[in-house]
């Protein structure tokens, strides 16, 4: 594999070789022992301080309470600089430059100190109640949100551009643990979900957005609203044991699935109780 035309191909893709090629074709020349400066642009710096709540997005060397120098090309916007260091703008509060509030689209003056706070909790939203769209890895969280009555759309085969389009079209907040997805320029509303256990993820979403809860009102399978239904109407869908034991039923108005409060709901009741406690804390 390392000989002949294939070997040449691989060699040409090595970073050092590609850079040397660019240098020749661009007509630039070596600027000296410190590196090259073919465009005549020297690197400037900003000082950036991140709230500790945002450190999980940063490499370990940047996880410091004091402002740290960051390279800056002199033209990029604040938002670009923050995201290129690793922190999605969906996770930040109001940025400040030398103590004054600044928009992500602004260009900071050279040498400025930029402060990046975490988003406030509960987060103010342009829509109420908040509705969500979850990425393919968050199916368990989607079912828990539905259980407590929060609208959570989920599909296990949507790709990233589809997710962004769907969230924007339906005015939903895209929930994900994919940093790159949150950095997409055209995404209107998104949030990083903290925690690896679905119960922790649910607490995180409830703390951040404080949605109103309405347990046992949504289909956990499809997000459709549940409506009360007479036992006689769904008797055919029930196993004989269920038909004998229970009298109060609901049905999903979207997919038709029957629901009743049974012995197997003890675990779900624990999830609902925990959610209610988190919600009471978040809404003060
Ligand atoms: Zn349903």
UniProtKB/TrEMBL annotation:
Q: Residues in domain Mut7-C RNAse?
A: 130-271
Q: Which Pfam families match?
A: Mut7-C (PF01927), Ub-Mut7C (PF14451)
Q: Which intervals carry biased composition (Gly residues)?
A: 26-37
List, for all copies, the residue spans of the domain called Ubiquitin Mut7-C. Answer: 46-121
Q: Which residues form a coiled coil?
A: none
Q: Where is this region: Disordered?
A: 20-39
**InterPro entries tied to this protein:** Mut7-C_RNAse_dom, Ub_Mut7C
The domain of life for this entry's organism is: Bacteria
Q: What is this protein called?
A: Mut7-C RNAse domain-containing protein
Which lineage? Bacteria, Bacillati, Actinomycetota, Actinomycetes, Kitasatosporales
């Amino acid at each position: 594999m390392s000989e002949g035309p294939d070997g040449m191909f691989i060699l040409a893709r090595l970073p050092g070789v590609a850079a040397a090629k660019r240098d020749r074709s661009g007509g630039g020349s070596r600027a000296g022992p410190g590196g090259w400066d073919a465009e005549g642009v020297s690197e400037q710096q900003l000082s950036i301080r991140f709230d500790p709540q945002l450190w999980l997005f940063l490499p370990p060397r940047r996880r410091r309470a004091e402002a740290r120098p960051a390279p800056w090309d002199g033209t990029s916007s604040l938002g670009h600089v923050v995201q290129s260091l690793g922190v999605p703008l969906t996770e930040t509060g109001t940025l400040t430059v030398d103590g004054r509030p600044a928009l992500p689209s602004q260009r900071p003056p050279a040498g400025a100190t930029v402060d990046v706070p975490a988003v406030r909790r509960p987060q103010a939203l342009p829509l109420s109640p908040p509705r969500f769209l979850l990425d393919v890895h968050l199916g368990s969280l989607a079912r828990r949100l539905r259980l407590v009555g929060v609208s959570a759309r989920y599909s296990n085969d949507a790709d990233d551009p589809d997710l962004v389009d769907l969230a924007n079209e339906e005015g939903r907040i895209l929930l994900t643990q994919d940093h790159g997805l949150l950095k997409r320029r055209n995404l209107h509303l998104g949030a990083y979900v903290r925690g690896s256990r679905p119960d922790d993820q649910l607490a995180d979403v409830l703390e951040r957005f404080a949605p109103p809860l309405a347990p046992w009102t949504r289909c956990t399978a499809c997000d459709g609203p549940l409506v009360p239904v007479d036992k006689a109407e769904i008797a055919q869908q029930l196993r004989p044991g269920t038909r004998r034991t229970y009298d109060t039923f609901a049905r999903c108005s979207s997919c038709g699935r029957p629901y009743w409060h049974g012995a197997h709901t003890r675990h779900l009741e624990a999830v609902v109780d925990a959610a209610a406690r988190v919600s009471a804390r978040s809404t003060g």
